[in-house]
Write the C-alpha cells for this entry.
Amino acid sequence: MQKTVAEIARILDGEVVGDGSLMIKGVSGIKEAAAGEICFAASSKYLSLINKTGASAIITSKDIKEAPKPIIRTENPSLAFVKAVSLFTANTLKRPQGIHSTAVIGKGVKLGKDVSVEPYCVIEDGAELGDKTLLYAGVYIGQHTKLGKNCIIYPHVSIRERVSIGNRVIIHNGAVIGSDGFGFAKVKGIHHKIPQIGSVIIEDDVEIGANVTIDRARFDKTVIGHGTKIDNLVQIAHNVLIGENSIVVAQTGISGSTVLGKNVTLAGQSGLVGHITVGDNAIIGAQAGVTKSVPANGFVSGYPARPHQLARRITACVQKLPNLFKKVKELEKKVNEATTYGAKRT
C-alpha cells in the first residue's frame, strides 16, 4: 500500500510543508529510514538527524518550520507516528477463535460472546470472561476471578483466585497476578505465614509486562488504576495502590501498602519502601531508593532519594572526591613540613 504525503497528513490531522504528492510506501526510524519511507522527529533538537535521514518525508512537531524534504507538522509527532505505523503495517497474525478441546473449564464458568481459549488453559470454578477476551496457551485463571471485555492474556500468565480485571487489559507472558503477599510473623526464630486473604483489582486499559508479579492484599485489595502501564520484571507487593495513568518501568520494586497517585512515573530499577505515599505527577528517577513520601509534582533521584537537583549536586561533589582527597593529602604534607620546620627552629 502506498499513500501520498498529503493523504497521510489528512489522516494525521497535520500540515504539509513541501511536496505533498510524494508517494510513501512504509515507515521506519529516523536513522534507519530509506527512500520511500516516512519517519518522525519529536522536536527541533533532532534537526541534525532530519538533515541526514534517508527518509522521503518526516512527521515533525509544530516548532519545526521547514526541512530539506517534505514534512508533516503535527501537535504530537509521537502519537501521529503511531497512527502512521498502524496505517502501513497490516496485522498478519491470525487471532485464535473458539475454545480449544484441551482447555480445562470448571463448574459455573461464564464465558462472554466470542471468547477465545487456546490449548491447555485452565479456568477454575466460578470464573468469568467478558466478551471477546482472549486467553493464549497455558493461561491459568483461578476460582471466582473475573475478566472484562476485550482482554488479551498471553501464554503462561497465572491469575489467581478472586482477582478482578477490567476491560481492554493486556497481560504479557509469564506475569503472575494475585500471588500471596510476603507476610510472615517471626516467633522464637521461626517465620509463621500470615494468610493473604485479600484480592487484586486491575482497572480498565491497564497493560502489564512480561514476568510482572502483583501480590494480593493481606486483607483488602491491591489496586492498579485505570490506564496504568507496567513494564517487564516489576514487583508490586500486597496492598499497594497505584493511581490512574501511571508508568512503572522495568525492574522496579514497590513494597507493601505504598500508595501512588495519578500520573506517577517510576523509572527503571527504582525501589520504594512500604507505607509511604507518592503524590500525583511525581517522578522517581532510575535506581532511586525512596525511603520517604514524595509530594505531588516532586522529582526525586539517588539513594536515598532526594530532590533531583540536590541529588545531582551531591553526585557531582562525589565525583570530585579523588581530587579533593589528593589536595587534602598535599595540604597535610605541607602542614607537617611546616610544623617540623618550626619545631627545629625552636
